[in-house]
Amino acid sequence: MTTTPTDEPADSSPDPRPGTSGAPGAPGTVGTAGTAAELADAMTRAIKRIRRQTGWRLEPYGITPGQARALRMLAHVPGCETPDHAMRLSDLADKLHIAPRSATTVVDALEEAGLVERSPDPADRRAVRILLTEAGRAAVERIGQVRDEVAQEYFGEVSPADEEVLLRVLRSAEARFLAAGPPRR
């Protein structure tokens, strides 16, 4: 049997340290820094593949993955088609974890494509709000379909029970990470 880095090794020699099995950091080792690093590597590969497939599928619509994220973020704001409920550009940048200048570039491209409109903020004349257009709402629907297709293809062989476990573990890890405060740079 040929093993891959994510397969259990056929023969795990016991580690002399209590609470471990196999060599430190070896595949299948439970609870070690090596296993966490291997998990991070596997997640990075999965994210890259999913993002690449999503990007290829969005290309015919003229939408990049970054623009898709921005449209989805805007669509989650109730009433995002009206000036009173539209999201401020600065809030969009914060939610996307990008610099305001980068958000401006994304919104420029979306506005040029007719997917969003800028509107002055009635509460602050210096601020700009971003409104999702009807074409933008249709793009969000297409983006959702593409995301679902790519996810089904990638996770198609994973059981629903395993998907639930993976999702629960990732949500728990994210919650612990965020609770620890801002990461050190």
Spell out the key features of this protein.
disordered N terminus, 6 helices, 185 residues, mainly alpha, three-stranded antiparallel beta sheet
How is this structure best described in words?
The chain has 185 residues and is mostly helical. The protein is built from six helices and three strands; from the N terminus they run ααβααββαα. It has helices at residues 33-58, 65-75, 89-96, 100-112, 134-155, 160-179; strands at 87-88, 116-121, 124-132. The protein has a three-stranded antiparallel β-sheet with strand order 1-3-2. Helix 1 (33-58) packs across helix 5 (134-155), helix 2 packs across helix 4 and helix 3 (89-96) packs across helix 4. It starts with 32 loop residues before the first helix and ends in a 6-residue tail after the last helix. Mean pLDDT is 82; it is low at 1-29.
Looking at the structure, what is the overall shape? globular
Report the span from N to C terminus.
43 Å
Q: Which percent band covers the strand fraction?
A: 5-15%
The number of distinct β-strands equals 3
Rg, please?
22 Å
Query: Largest sheet, described in full?
Result: 3 strands, antiparallel
What structural class do the secondary elements suggest?
mainly alpha
Strands ordered across the widest β-sheet: 1-3-2
**Mean of the pLDDT scores?**
82
